[in-house]
Design brief:
It comes from Oncorhynchus tshawytscha (Chinook salmon). The chain is an alpha+beta fold. The chain has 14 helices and nine strands. It is 59% helix and 11% strand. The strands form two sheets. The chain has a seven-stranded antiparallel beta sheet with strand order 4-3-2-1-7-6-5, sandwiched between helices. Strands 8-9 form a two-stranded antiparallel ribbon. The longest helix has 60 residues.
Length: 482
């Protein structure tokens, strides 16, 4: 173990024991050393987002520790070697772990079974402490919601118990009255004919009357149900449910597009940036994609919550999902603010023939359906307005006394506020960029355009007109490009 972390050695040893016994994934892997590029078989154990390896399965102390937070893991093809060792390498399956921070070389590993290689890659991709925290917050919100439901059910149960007790008292009182009436009838009609001696015609009449009463009752109930089905309230509820179903379908499609953006473009380009002759740098990859992977993780959680609510149909409760989603939507501000710049960086990178060729290979993937990378980068720009429109339609078919009415109105107002802020930020950013572009067009420069308070009005092709505000000092100039 490295001396730089010896102050936490006891904790690390404890975690290594837990990983060796209860780890998410354990087994032998071949590890490539950085010193002499040789392969050595070690026993590896994965626990949460910490990756341990031991000399063998009986070792007490780990030989090394890797922190997997923010890393990427992908299967890689078999390296090219001479013909003599090709048969041995064809039986091996390789995968690579690229760490998120600079200064640490990727970790190269290999296995003899393809399914075991896939299991290790999947387990390492899911080893994220931040995902566990987000899942814990979601579960905590569900727990709080369930506790509130239980408390409400307890209050309702107490009310029903009180009503049952009152009804039992009323039943006992009515029974007493019936007994008193029967005794009175016995005294008044001592020669009353028994039911067994009743006239057969009277029995037939009673049966017909009983049948008619049942038929009338069923007919009345059928009319009540039909009237409700045709009522405006039922029609509004059907439209509300259809809006929710369409929202789930749209969220499914959006998560699918984000997964294509991350899996078919972002992660492969990160791997390419780590190669010996990278066609693109890590900084350019970060500038183009920014936090699109985080946006994908956020909407995967939101999508799972929507599918869980659909499973409980016809009871559709969505307000608490938006309460969880709203605090995290601020990540869209950075993406929207950076969108125009990311497209410029992408256009500059396409000047490199190697990058352009590699990008066209990625865009030829069947999952992309002929769409370019710029198309996928545009999808998050419209997600916040789409949520606002959906909530507006949902509120139009939600009664004012509905339990979710206030929560949905609050979510809609917050989304509209976030949309206005992003629009203003994009407008200011574009204004500054256009002013700087005009300043570079002027041969001797123009310092007034470097002032961020200047507003871009219009741009043409041939002439520049300088307008002086009358009634002010001559130094105050406003430049207008026609």
């Amino acid at each position: 173990m490295q001396k730089s972390v010896r102050f936490n050695e006891g904790h690390a040893l404890f975690l290594s024991v837990v990983a060796r016994k209860e780890g998410t994934k354990r087994g032998y892997l071949s590890k490539k050393t950085t010193e002499n590029s040789r392969w050595h078989e070690k026993f590896f154990a994965l626990y949460q987002n910490v990756f341990f390896y031991f000399e063998n399965e009986q070792s007490v102390r780990p030989a090394g520790i890797y922190l997997l937070e923010g890393c990427t893991c992908e299967s890689v093809p078999v390296p090219k070697v001479s013909t003599a060792g090709k048969e041995t390498l064809d039986k091996q399956h390789y995968f690579l772990i690229v760490f998120g921070h600079d200064g640490q070389k990727p970790l190269e590993l290999r296995t003899e079974e393809e399914n075991e290689c896939d299991e290790w890659v999947e387990a390492i991709q899911q080893a994220s402490y931040s995902d566990i925290i987000i899942e814990r917050e979601v579960l905590m919100q569900k727990y709080i919601h369930l506790v509130q439901i239980v408390e409400t059910e307890k209050v309702a149960a107490n009310q029903l118990r009180t009503q049952l007790e009152d009804q039992d008292t009323e039943i006992e009182r009515l029974k007493g009255e019936i007994v008193a009436l029967n005794k009175t009838n016995e005294r008044m009609w001592p020669y009353h004919v028994n039911q067994e001696d009743e006239d057969p015609d009277i029995k037939k009449i009673k049966k017909v009357q009983s049948f008619m009463r049942g038929w009338l009752c069923r007919r009345k109930w059928k009319l009540i149900v039909q009237d409700y089905i045709c009522s405006p309230h039922a029609e509004s509820m059907r439209k509300r449910n259809q809006i929710v179903f369409n929202m789930v379908e749209a969220e499914t499609e959006y998560v699918h597009q984000l997964s294509i953006l991350v899996n078919c473009f972002l992660r492969p380009l990160r791997m390419a940036a780590s190669s010996k002759k990278p066609p693109i740098s890590h900084d350019d990859v970060s500038s183009v994609f920014l936090n699109s992977e985080t946006i994908m993780f956020l909407h995967e959680i939101f999508h799972q919550g929507l599918k869980a609510r659909i499973a409980n149909w016809p009871t559709l409760v969505l307000a608490d999902l938006f309460d969880i989603l709203l605090p995290m939507l601020n990540i869209y501000q950075e993406f929207v603010r950076n969108h125009q710049y990311s497209l410029q960086v992408l256009a500059n990178c396409k000047q490199n023939r190697d990058f352009d060729k590699l990008l066209k290979q990625y865009e030829a993937n069947a999952a992309c359906e002929g769409r370019m990378l710029e198309t996928f980068l545009t999808y998050p720009m419209f997600q916040i307005p789409r949520y606002i429109i959906t909530l507006h339609e949902l509120l139009a078919h939600t009664p004012h006394e509905h339990v979710e009415r206030k929560s949905l109105e609050f979510a809609k107002s917050k989304l509209e506020e976030l949309s206005r802020v992003m629009h203003d930020e994009v407008s200011d950013t574009e204004n500054i960029r256009k002013n700087l572009a005009i300043e570079r067009m002027i041969v001797e420069g123009c310092d007034i355009l470097l002032d961020t308070s200047q507003t871009f009005v219009r741009q043409g092709e041939r002439r520049i007109c300088v307008i002086v505000h009358f009634g002010r000092k001559v130094e105050n100039w406003d430049l207008v490009i026609f």
